[in-house]
Amino acid sequence: MPRPDAEPRHRTRGSDPGPRTTDHGPLGGRHERPDARAKVAGSTRYVGDLSLPGMLHAGVAVAPIASARVLALDTAAARAVDGVEAVVTAAALPGANLVGVIFPDQPLLAADRVRMVGDRLALVAARTPEAAWRAARLVEATLEPLPAVHDPVAALVPGAPLVHDGGNLVRTFQVARGDAGRRSADVVVEALYHVGGQEHAYLEPQGCLAIPEGRSRITIIASCQCPFYVQQAVARVLGLPLAAVRVEQAPTGGGFGGKEDYPSEPAACAAVLAFATGRPVRFVLPRELDMQVSTKRHAMVVRHRWGADRNGRLRFAEVDAVLDAGAYVGISTVVAERANVSAIGPYDVPNVHVRTRIAYTNNLFGGAFRGFGAPQVTWAAEATIDRLARAVGLDPLEFRRRNLLDDHRRRICTGQLLRRPVLARECLDRAATLAGWDEFHARPRAADTATREGMGIALALYGCNLHHGGQRLDRSSAVVILQADGSVVVRVGLTEIGQGNLVACQTIAAQALGVDPTAVQVWQPDTTTVADSGPTVASRGAHASGMAILDAVRRLRTRLDPVAAELLGCRREQVELAAGRARVAGEPDRSVTIAQVAAELAARRIEAIATGWYRSRPRRFDAATGEGEPYEFYAVACHVARVAVDRDLGVVRVEEVSAAHDVGRVIHRDALEGQIQGGVVQGVGWGTTERLALDHGRLVNPSFTDYLIPTFADAPKVNIAIVESDGAGGPFGAKGVGEPALIPAAAAVRNAVVAALGVELDALPLVPPAIVAALGDAHPFAWVAEEEHEHVRSETVAPGR
Amino acid sequence: MDVPVQEVIRPATIAEALAALAEREDARPIAGGTDLMVQLRDGRRRAGRLVDLGRLGLAGIRRTRDAIEVGAATTMDAIAASAEIKRSFPALASAARQVGAWPIQCRATLGGNLANGSPAADTAPPLLIAEASVTIASAAGTRRLRVADLFLGPGRTALTPGELVTSVRLPLDEPAPGERVVERFTKVGPRREQVISVVSLAGRAVIRPDGTFALVRLAFGSVAPVPVRALTAERALAGRRPDAAARRDAARAVQDDIAPIDDVRAPARYRRIAAAVLLDRFLQEAARG
Ligand SMILES: Cc1cc2nc3c(=O)[nH]c(=O)nc-3n(C[C@H](O)[C@H](O)[C@H](O)COP(=O)(O)OP(=O)(O)OC[C@H]3O[C@@H](n4cnc5c(N)ncnc54)[C@H](O)[C@@H]3O)c2cc1C
Questions:
Q1: Do A597 and A704 belong to one domain?
Q2: Which chain B residue shows the shortest CA-CA distance from A801?
Q3: Is residue A424 domain-shared with residue A480, that is, in the same domain?
Q4: Quick one: pLDDT at residue A181?
Q5: What's the gap in Å between B38 CA and the centre of ligand 1?
Q6: What are phi and psi of A95, to 5 degrees?
Q7: Which of A374, A728, B40, B109 is deepest in the core (most CB within 10 A)?
């Protein structure tokens, strides 16, 4: 944070203000987000702020090494700590000792085997958090170290230490098109990319509160993205029917995927302790432990062999990717599915062969993270595209223009035809114009200064909503209640995690009912008020909840419109809802307020509640060949980054990112721009400074002192171009933007840094030592590190301040 | 989690503070708390009693005949804003403005930065090139110690329990007529703000009208167990002009002054190279003036 009197470095250039007149409704506008004030003022109550009479606090004892046999667990010292009410080990669990979302490979509590640092050994409930954590530290585990594997490629070599009995290869995804041969290419690029993981760095750590009712039912209040996942996990470990587990989403201070799969684990822990003690139990992870044990973005190793002809047309692309699942599958299969489809970007390539394998290792386990495997493969693809452009002597923009999918060439690698319009070219041109690509390249730049400037571009093709493989989850439920005073209650099954789902649902409901957004109250999801709506992931929040809201409004109007028609003296087909009124279509002067209609419904005791339902269109997809329609429709994004690199120190500053996004229709402009700005900054952080330093599977920088996310001082100026079109298929024609906002950012930065320095960089993140190492002997002081030095003391520089 | 402290004492005089520190073995002074609170929470340091230095009148910058005295409880923000410091010790002002970010600068104190004993303490290199000393008080009396003798190892200083740093003395050193002074502080880190130095350099050069060094002092942070003066490099440059040959000799010589290791922030190789780059840039600036 700069001093308040300091000059602002830059302001974000906003896009047009959007429709203003109330008659158009709030769609596409900028009305105030309903959750904004409380969050900014600090009055929002997160899980850590909740407390109940008699409430206990949970702590957990975790394994300090990555691979071991559990020989003994001694909990006597932990039990003796003053204030401790319960210590639970695997033997004492009431239901299944299992929390895996997709594969049954992860125990809630390790019984005999440790597979990663952070595996839970015992749970503690105590009257204070201090007592709980002290007791957790006193759980004595006798562990016999076993061989471990930390490199996903090595894990797939026969003879590698086995993480699970069935072998380290979890699954392979493939897709092939044409014949991926070398024959018709004039230039061929081969490269091996090491793309690192990422910590979610949500502001609010993982937390939940479990409130038991005897041993028959339980309420969980959780910071989470997916209340229905939490419900299933808790029901399983307690051995309860789903109906006996009520999960309410607490206001959630950020998720980014980190609160998709992982919160089921702390919730199951708190639930077990609540049943063991009969008391409410709150479990909030301290930051360092949260960073150490929770899921991360998957690290990937991506091998490329791509070819183009001398006119700059792509001929073939071979991609061989390995995803480091870590010790448990979690949702790695779904991440790999998306990586597999996203591996060649929005390009028209006649011959494609993509293979994505998932490997178990003894590293921290990978989970959902904004982009879901797409950012990693996009980083690699866009690096290779730039290499090919250089090899054939074309400007990176021109090379892309020659290969982008468009309305005529719209078949992707799975054989699916994209819906028209295909807006890749449009996004590229808009982003390049915003960035001033031509002017930048026309300007002479000194090659001998300390700071080198560069500009880079990257695109992404994003499959909206869930993959075919997750289609059974792709449905959603909503409830709309018209109150007697004309105000409206909306309940949905998808969550607000900072991304703007509340304001999106509010806008959609207000638009559909013709009321002011302030008349609509959208409440936090609760599994007892709506049916299972699947997860809040895959940029599907506004889409899935919005479609269900529209369905509910349609059903509500079957009862509302006849009453309005009676009041107006017209036919029900003539009733139109707008500007807070029901009116006769074409005769705006004949109207009554919605409040009058609502009062009339109440007076006549007409059902003023309606449910709504959405499910995605069934699609054809062959998991064995990878052919078919993995996603319902697609969005394109293009980012152009301008960087300044201190070459000799290897320090990258991202000055500006220009982002063009194909969003269908805008629902709420501030929320949309916020998503784009946030996605860009998070992508820039991942690409430059956010390094997960793992030592034998242990995270050695589990704090914000050493895991460096961008601060406001590092946030680039973000220019935004919104590319709208009709017919996308979401509510009012909207497409998701949460993930596309991040996916190309790091790749654009990488290409900009390479342009600035003239050396290839094949590992993410681009931390200063990596850049200096890549310069090799070209660095003017490389020689100082090769010589002998007198003075090397054994004492170490401590990581502390 | 809460910080495991039993009591906080807020004395009004230095004598009371020293008594409060002497009374309990596990008593510790606290100034801005920007290091200590973090360390107490994660268990790196313990304290049963905290003795708050906020009301002892230890904040302030005072000029004497031949020195500037900075009170130990003076904040980084006050140091960075001081015209006196900016004029005579610009490297210190610049370092103070680069500690964390502005909210931290408004709490973090000079005494805390030194007493914490980090090899990355940003004010240490500027104080080393100023040949500054600290005044230390305890129930037994006061003593003076050169900053160069204060740091013993990561997190370890020559302060003994019960001792307080009360002020830091920076001797004024006016150049002779015709001489130019170039003084800089630079730190390297992957972020613009809120970043612990991966390598830092403070340099002071006094240049004669003929372009040769009348004096050159160099000190580095984060390249050894303690902040270090680069005496070998200084000797390699003594009396010379900062031309290409001298700069190359200095880059080689400084490697013997530093002893970096691989840690989570950077490998030793990077620190060696970055130290050479910072030094080279400083010498080029000195040549240009
Ligand atoms: C977010 C953040 C960013 C930071 N960034 C930087 C940075 O960029 N550069 C940097 O150098 N530091 C940085 N720090 C560390 C810290 O802010 C500085 O070291 C600061 O100067 C410490 O001063 P304080 O007054 O807060 O010390 P405290 O935390 O109050 O005390 C630190 C130690 O010194 C002792 N102590 C304090 N005053 C005295 C005294 N007068 N006599 C004897 N002992 C004393 C205390 O007992 C304690 O052991 C950062 C800290 C944070 C939290």
A1: no
A2: B118
A3: no
A4: 61
A5: 10
A6: -115, -145
A7: B109
pLDDT for the residue A1: 59
Report, as ranges of residue numbers, the positions in chain A whose pLDDT lies below 50: 11-22, 791-801
Looking at the fold, whether A138 and A272 belong to one and the same domain comes out as yes
State pLDDT tens for residues B192-237.
Answer: 999 999 999 999 999 999 999 999 999 999 999 999 999 999 999 9
Q: Is residue A176 part of a domain?
A: no
In a shared domain, residues A429 and A529: no
pLDDT average, residue stretch B122-132: 98
Q: Spell out the domain ranges in chain B.
A: 7-52, 61-171, 180-288
Residue B2 confidence (pLDDT): 63
Bond from prior residue into A158 cis (ω within 30 degrees of 0) = no
Between A450, A689, A789, which is nearest B191 by CB? A689
pLDDT at A793: 44
**Ligand 1 pocket test, candidate residues B99, B157, B196, most atoms within 8 A of CB:** B99
Rounded Cα–Cα distance for residues A727 and A222 (Å)? 36
pLDDT, residue A3, reads: 66
Give the number of other Cβ atoms within 10 Å of residue A282's Cβ: 25
In A485-509, which positions are buried (b, 16+ CB within 10 angstroms) versus exposed (e)? ebbbbbbbbbbbbbbbbbbbbbbbb
SS (H, E, C) chain B: CCCCCCEEECCCCHHHHHHHHHHCCCEEEECCCCCHHHHHHCCCCCCCEEEECCCCCCCCEEECCCEEEEECCCEHHHHHHCHHHHHHCHHHHHHHCCCCCHHHHCCCEHHHHHHCCCCCCCCHHHHHHCCCEEEEEECCEEEEEEHHHHEEECCEECCCCCCEEEEEEEECCCCCCCCEEEEEEEEECCCCCCCCCCEEEEEEEEECCCCCEEEEEEEEECCCCCCEECHHHHHHHCCCCCCHHHHHHHHHHHCCCCCCCCCCCCCHHHHHHHHHHHHHHHHHHHHHC
Domain B61-171 has CATH 3.30.465.10: yes
Is residue A536 included in any domain, yes or no? yes
What is the tens place of the pLDDT at every residue in B4-46? 788 999 999 999 999 999 999 999 999 999 999 999 988 889 9
- What is the domain range of residue A211? 47-146+200-293
The reply to whether A726 falls in a domain is yes
Per-residue pLDDT of A246-282, as tens digits, reads 999 999 999 999 999 999 999 999 999 999 999 999 9
Considering the domain architecture, whether residues A650 and A584 belong to the same structural domain is answered as no
CB contacts of B102 in chain A (<8 Å) are: 1-4
Considering only CB atoms, A800 lies closest to which of B44, B190, B194, namely B44
What is the pTM assigned to this prediction?
A: 0.96
B7-52 is a CATH 3.30.43.10 domain? yes
Taking the C-alpha atoms of residue B89 and residue B92, their distance in angstroms, rounded to an integer, is: 6
Q: What is the pLDDT of residue A20?
A: 38
For the segment(s) B180-288, the CATH number from 3.40.190.10, 1.10.238.10, 3.40.430.10, 3.30.390.50 is 3.30.390.50
Which of B3, B191, B247 to mutate: most A Cβ within 10 Å?
B191
CATH of the domain at A222: 3.90.1170.50
Q: Is A789 on the interface with B (CB under 8 A)?
A: yes
